Amino acid sequence: MGTRGLPLLATTFVFACCSTGYAQTPVSLTDTSQSTTLTANVSEQARVTVPSGVTFNVADVGSATAATAASVSVSGIVLATATKQFKVSLQANAATFTAPGGATTWSACDVTWNAAAWTNATGALGTLSNSSYNAVATCAADAADCSTNALVFTLGAKNTVKRSGNHQLTVTWKFESIGS
Question: What is the pTM of this model?
Answer without folding.
Answer: 0.81
